[in-house]
Specification:
With about 200 residues, this protein is an alpha+beta fold. The protein has one domain: Porin. It is about 20% helix and about 50% strand. Strands 1, 2, 3, 4, 5, 6, 7, 8 and 9 form a 9-stranded antiparallel sheet that branches. The longest helix has 25 residues.
C-alpha cells in the first residue's frame, strides 16, 4: 500500500474516533446528571496469527499458543435512539508465547437490538489506544517489528443470558498500526468470550 493510501486511511481512523466522541458528547446534555450503570466485563481468549480480515474468516483463522485474560470497566455517557455511547478502560494479561500486560481505552458506540430479539442484545464498535508493558513478541514475529502503543479497536456481539444483569460477550480484540498512524506495519488479533454485569 502506498504512503498516500496509508495516510488517507489513517485520517479516516482519526475522523471515526473524533466522530464517536463528538456525537456522543453532544447528544444528551439534558441527561448528564442521569444515573448510569457501571458495566463490568471479564473476558478471556486466544490470539490468532492472522490479519483481522483473515481472522474473521473461519476457514483461514489460525490460533497460536498465546492467550489473554482481562477486565473492562465501562460507562455510557450518552444515548440516542437505540445507540449508546460510552468509554471503557481495560486491563489485559498475556500468557503463553508472550508475558506482559496491556491497557486499552476505547470509546464505543453500541447498537441495542429491539426488545423482541431474544438472543442478540447488542452490537458494539470501539476505537481508542492500546499500551503494552512490553513490545509484544507475537507482533514482532508477524510484522518484524512493533511498538508498545498502537491503535485499539474492538467489534463485539452481546447475548442475553437468563440471569438478570448478566450477559455473554463475544469480541474481536484488535491492536493495529492504524493503517500508517504508527511506524510499523504490525498488530494482533484475539477472539475473546466474556461475562458482563451491569450495576
Amino acid at each position: 500500500m502506498s504512503l498516500a493510501a496509508h495516510r488517507s486511511i489513517g485520517q479516516v481512523a482519526h475522523f471515526a474516533l473524533a466522530a464517536i466522541l463528538w456525537v456522543g458528547l453532544g447528544i444528551t446534555t439534558s441527561s448528564a446528571a442521569e444515573q448510569r450503570d457501571w458495566i463490568v466485563t471479564a473476558f478471556g481468549g486466544q490470539l490468532t496469527n492472522n490479519v483481522w480480515e483473515e481472522a474473521i474468516n473461519p476457514s483461514e483463522t489460525k490460533f497460536i499458543d498465546s492467550y489473554v485474560v482481562g477486565l473492562g470497566v465501562a460507562r455510557d455517557f450518552a444515548q440516542r435512539g437505540r445507540f449508546d455511547f460510552g468509554w471503557e478502560i481495560q486491563a489485559v494479561g498475556h500468557f503463553g508465547d508472550q508475558d506482559h500486560f496491556e491497557f486499552n481505552t476505547p470509546v464505543y458506540a453500541r447498537f441495542n437490538t429491539p426488545e423482541s430479539w431474544r438472543i442478540l442484545k447488542s452490537l458494539t464498535f470501539g476505537l481508542g489506544l492500546s499500551y503494552a508493558t512490553k513490545v509484544p513478541s507475537t507482533e514482532i514475529e508477524r510484522g518484524r517489528d512493533s511498538t508498545r502503543t498502537l491503535v485499539y479497536w474492538m467489534g463485539e456481539m452481546e447475548f442475553h443470558l437468563p440471569p438478570e444483569n448478566l450477559d455473554l460477550v463475544f469480541r474481536l480484540h484488535h491492536r493495529s498500526d492504524g493503517y500508517g498512524l504508527f511506524p510499523h506495519d504490525t498488530g494482533s488479533n484475539a477472539f475473546v468470550l466474556g461475562l458482563r454485569w451491569r450495576h
